[in-house]
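Technical appendix A lists one of the benchmark inputs used to test multi-chain prediction within the project. The record comprises two sequence entries:
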Amino acid sequence: EDQVTQSPEALRLQEGESSSLNCSYTVSGLRGLFWYRQDPGKGPEFLFTLYSAGEEKEKERLKATLTKKESFLHITAPKPEDSATYLCAVRGPGNTPLVFGKGTRLSVIA
Amino acid sequence: GAVVSQHPSWVICKSGTSVKIECRSLDFQATTMFWYRQFPKQSLMLMATSNEGSKATYEQGVEKDKFLINHASLTLSTLTVTSAHPEDSSFYICSARVPGLEAGELFFGEGSRLTVL
């Protein structure tokens, strides 16, 4: 069974304090790992897709990386507007649906 | 980017009544839509996959007679919670797959918070 575990569950940072969020996964035949951002009371918003170990994607202060067992979402010099829950999801072979982790709730304090 | 609109954003109903939630793709045709349920501090749990013109595919443990899904057009899918009870209170979110894009890059609606009294 495909599984996604995210850590930490919650993270509180000072503005400008860089950190990383972790997503560990087990899936038979990874077809993609996906990062989403979810604001309170809203639906998730797509951020990145990673396909193979060693791949990296960047967007503003966010950088996602992938190994064979986990992915990291690095946040460099975060701002309060980066506060949100960050969700990780994996897709296996065929038409299997995405499996989501529980997310990391990030709070960035000014 | 693609836009998915969900309505209503929140609804309060009495126990035993039925509630319908709509999910629309505004600027693309969505042959496949997904319905999720999310409890506080929990992950998105897929309830069912909605395919235009055919019956929905429900995940294990989801009662298809309680959560009725209709995908009658390429831009609209509806979820009806029948005979709602307090335990059905949750945040329901739809998403759509854009044809031609990576299957895991979904566009989500704003979500609908259901409270059953």
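The radius of gyration of chain A is 13 Å. The first strand of chain A starts at residue 3 and ends at 7. Comparable benchmark entries are summarised in Table A2.
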